Amino acid sequence: MSDRDTIAGKETGAVLSADPSFGVFDSLNHPVCVIGLHGDILYANSRFSNFFESAGGSMSIDLSHPFSPEYRKSIALAYTKALKGGDRRCFAVMKTPDDRRLAVEIYLYPMFRDEAVVSILAFLKPVSDDRVISFGRNTAMMASDDEPLANSGIFDFAPFPIVRFAREGAIVSGSASVESFFGHALADLQNNRNLLFRSVSLYDFERFRKAVADVFDGRAGFKRLGEIRILSKSREEKWANAIIYPLVINREIFAVEAILEDITRIKSLEARMSLLNRVQIIGDLTKGLLHSFNNIINIILSRTQLLLQVTEKDTVLEGLRVIEKTAGQGVRQVRRIQDFMGEGDTLRESESEDLIDVIEDAIEFSNIHFKVEIKEKRRHIKVERRYFCLVNVKTDTRLLREILISMIFKAASFLRRSGTINVVLKDEDVPALTVMVKKEGPESEPASDATGESLGTIIFSAIDIRRVVERLNIKIIEEESATSYSIRAVLPASIVAGKGRKESDPTEYRVRDRDIIIVEDEKALKEILFELFDSMGNRVYVFESGDEALVEFKKGKANIVISDYGTKGITGIELLTRVKELDENAVTVLLSGWMIKDLKAYRNVVDLYLPKPFKLDVLIKEISKILIGSTR
What we know:
Beta-Lactamase, alpha+beta, 38% helix, Rossmann fold, elongated
């Protein structure tokens, strides 16, 4: 390539015209050369020639140049990348004939013709103070004199803590970020070695001490220690990885440095993931426990209701009513857990629900969590409620309940040890629910605990309430002062199904003179269902297997089929699907102690779904409604 060709620097915007030669670079004080695509030097100014002659090398970038071997690879990589069109910068050390070391910064700029790289423009900048600073092999720091480099510029800008140790273990210096990490001033750490000792556990201190000794004695080029637990001056738990490497002057290790990588946030996320994994396992176990518990409560509740119909003694009746009430409370608790887990499904979306019932469920679930906190964290939180209106809502009440729980937990985060949360429902054109709390003490920060956050906080702190409420068009208003916090949910008119209390249905429902097939593998519940429908004058056939029940139904002797979901042979849904295929007018009822997903896909198969535990009068009432509707 002729040095009279037009060549442009892509990034610098410099353009060398066709008339002047590269001799323009002779006016510069720095060594400059132009390197060809094959590594040959096409041009070098006088400063470049003098520089290499004094360094005892030749004007080429092959193996004859005087750069130290450990830097040749970095120069080659920078040159290769510059050929691809990018500006590059690298660092190298040269050895002179008199065995001196010269530090050089090299700047490489690609030069283009017709958008193609044709050569590389190289600027060399020798380090003026003859000091060689490099992370070469073993990440060592080297110097040509005896100055210990106590105030290296890297300390001024390091975002992570760097601590330098002398051979006897004393802290020589450190970066400004050391103080923010440990909470102790660097001077205090230097004057009192026990501060560092008390900041880490004995196990981690011994690991660190041994690693520093190994590097000092040359047994290791560097050491990397993972997961060192550190307690700051404020007793805040932190975690760090340490990279320990030597500092070398004239091939002698004069100090050791440790870079501390703050991994506190990573450890916190790992702890949360571990907790959530345990929660998932507990959730799976809970599903099985709920199924068993559902059957137990169902037997107690159903048998109590049957006994109430035939018992006349007041003392016995009173005892049975207590049992029925207690079992009913157990039913509601199971429903709350199932709704919160979000696993179950329902067939009906058109029915409205009392908003107060939804609020009570949210408060009760929160109280369960607060009871655990009393035991584990000595944190006493009470929830008081005041209702100034009666409202029925028709919406996704499961999601609404989740929002209300989130509001209560958000308010609870402002209480450190004890306090009262007030829940107020008012109707101002549209229903509005407000959760208020008076802050405890002068601190306005949400409560935290050194031992970790509670499950409720972890689950609900990650929920952006404002995003969730958008699905229901609910408006959220938060207000905070130095002494109190409140969060208000304004419900849209579109989800209000009516105002006032629902009137109870006085109609007495009965199912008589029907052929009924019952499939249930729980012996006690099977006997209860048989006794219930038989006492009403029905012809009842009881089976434990779905296959046996299907054979009986094919004989044409039944028009109502009641089946548990987890039957032997085919499942309850499979049985009811076959029943509907054979007789679309047959009434199909599905009972289950399991939480069933995708139940809505079986609308045309299941006429009535009742999750266990259920009340016998509800079962009779709902079947009767279906029979009445089918005759109209």
